Amino acid sequence: MSKVACVYCGAERSSISDLTSSFCRRNPNGDYHVPYEGSIKSKYSCKYCGAERSSIADLTSDICRRNPNGDYHSPSM
Ligand SMILES: [Zn+2]
Ligand SMILES: [Zn+2]
Q1: Which of 8, 43, 61, 64 could bridge to 26 as Cys pair (CB 3.0-4.6 Å)?
Q2: CA distance 52 to 73
């Protein structure tokens, strides 16, 4: 079974309901994890600045100067 990852912090759970019922420290718009809806990749790039990391967790733990909605990189779909 594939896992679901949070778009804001990269936390992984086995289902969307598990993911969205846990608190997310990086969600600028709410309190809970939000599922990443793009495809699983070997590299993720930031949709605002193009920075690349090998995981969503790595990408979203770095500050992004171009993100108008928050402080961290955000994976493109
Ligand atoms: Zn999260
Ligand atoms: Zn970025």
Answers
A1: 8
A2: 9
Ligand nearest to the CA of 9: 1
For residue 31, with 0-12 CB atoms within 10 Å meaning exposed, 13-18 middle and 19 or more buried, which class applies?
A: exposed
Q: Whole-structure pTM over 0.85, yes or no?
A: yes
What Cα–Cα distance (Å) separates residue 70 from each residue in 3, 16, 22, 74?
25, 23, 20, 9
Q: Quote the ligand 1 centre to 36 CA distance (angstroms).
A: 10
pLDDT at residue 1 in the model: 58
- Coil, strand or helix: which one is 45? strand
